[in-house]
Prior knowledge:
- The complex is a heterodimer of chains A (309) and B (285).
- Chain A has helices at 42-49, 71-77, 93-103, 108-122, 137-149, 167-183, 195-201, 219-226, 241-247, 270-279, 294-308, and strands spanning 5-14, 17-27, 31-35, 57-62, 65-66, 78-81, 155-159, 187-192, 204-209, 212-217, 229-235, 251-254, 259-263, 283-289.
- With 309 residues, chain A is α/β, with parallel strands linked by helices.
- Chain A is elongated and about 75 Å long.
- The mean pLDDT of chain A is 88.
- Chain B has 14 helices and no strands.
Amino acid sequence: MVPVIELEGLGVRFWQRNILQDLRCTLSGRAIGLLGPNGAGKSTLINTLLGFYPVAAGTARVFGYDIRTQTMQIRSLTGYMPETDCFIAHMTAVSFVRMMAELSGLPSSAALERAHEALFYVGLGEARYRKLGTYSLGMKQLAKLAQAIAHGPKLIILDEPTNGLDPPARQRMIRLIHEMRDSRELQILLCSHLLRDVEETCDEVLILKDGRQVHYANLEEERRTNKRFLELETVGDDGGFAEAVENLGCACAVTSGKRMKIVLPESFVMRDLYRLAEARNVQIRRMNYRRDSLEDIFLKAMENSNGRS
Amino acid sequence: MAVHKRGYRGYAGQLTPLWSRCWIVTRYAFKNVFQWKLLTSFFYACFIFPLTCAAGIYVNHSTRLLVMFGVRSLFDVDAGFFFQFLRVQGSLAFILTALVGPGLVSPDLANNALPLYFCRPLSRAAHVAGKMMILVSLLSLITWVPAILLFLIQSSLAGWSWMWANLWLPAGVFLGSAIQILVFSVLALALSAWIKRKLAAGAALLAVFFFGAGFAEAVDAVLGTHKGALLNISRLILTVQAQLFRQPWRSPISAGSAWMALLAVSGICLWLLARKVRAYEVVRG
């Protein structure tokens, strides 16, 4: 399978100032998160992938197409929801989305049909004949999403899609992203500085800081790995429980009298642990999987990058 | 993604060819232009003079009507007629440009809509060409198209000999209008791109022509040269058209210099457009 995005030493420079430097990564997730503090270069990376900014060093590929030479092919396959407020105020939502779909290559009648469908899909069905200038901020965000998906792209780039949304509108946007991801019809590149948005929707994340790549994490992999780390708190252990757990094939470390950390083997069946506890008359009072949240990953990445710089 | 299903679905149907995308920009902009009733009325009014000329040509060849009016001929249909025709229609074309031009690019810039155009398989040149096609087609419809029709009417009424004798006129009509349309269009688009407010862009277009003429005179007076005429765009256009129609025209600059100056103005405008019409502007920080 062709990776969604391959960064091969990508660099972008504006007036002798390096905005992006030596980005190297292969991203193939169904939903890819682009994280970083403000000014990290997230939007610049997106704009460079779309061919808006010239490449100063290296290159990148989107679905195997080189961003230096095959911009039009890349743009044919992508849908883009920009961060900034952008629309054509005097147009109704349906003509706006239809025009955008036509510009992406759909014939006029198909574009009209899909404009209606996209607007219904994002929840603007009832307001589709209203002029965009009269829309609220949340509605404008949804209209931007509709224009990004109307032509049925293979990759949708969402730049800060929940910006300025109230909690219910944010929930709605996240739900739509979930649905699109789960439809398996397209892949998503989500750029946000909100960790929660990325954590809820993405399975792969690239963290940038000051134009440099500071961390890459496969969240799916991390979640799977975390499931193998267990923290236990027990009562009634006479000291032999840890040894018995190790005999089940686990690595075990007792942190205090009652608490222990366990690394489970691949084929471990949790029922065996309960059986062992019952046999040794040990009460399991607390059992937690290690939860290395995206926030932890992000903070660690930031700390590491501070240490390096 | 059927409405009743409300689920995302990709598109696997046919796609339109890449070259045809700029016409989509033109089509939607046309729809917007003709929503303004004043403009629509003015556009129709621009055909009054050509229709009057066509009627005049018909009367010129109708002995019964000439006798009725008691004249031998209403006017001569020659190079001078077409030169004057383009002068009148050129003035109307300028007003039409001032009405239509500022609303073409400025709303896209004011609403930050350019990234939405350029994230699609549409080049910047295609976008500008699409917008320019509106001015080109509207201005063509009131300048060289009616002029050519008048030429054909005159030819059909005056006979083949007149047509053969004046066969060079359509080329002059077309070239004279083409340079005028090109300059008006690129200037209007460039101003529309650099001045985000429609009204201000319209005012700037008027200023370029009227204050430009005044400035040219001032330059001539202060420096004691005739090169200031190069800054007077309407005079440059008339100089070129007079040469094309072989009309006596007093101009301090040669037709060749006028051609060069007009092409330079168009080039500068295109450069200004290229600088401004882009998805995102990089600001030196």
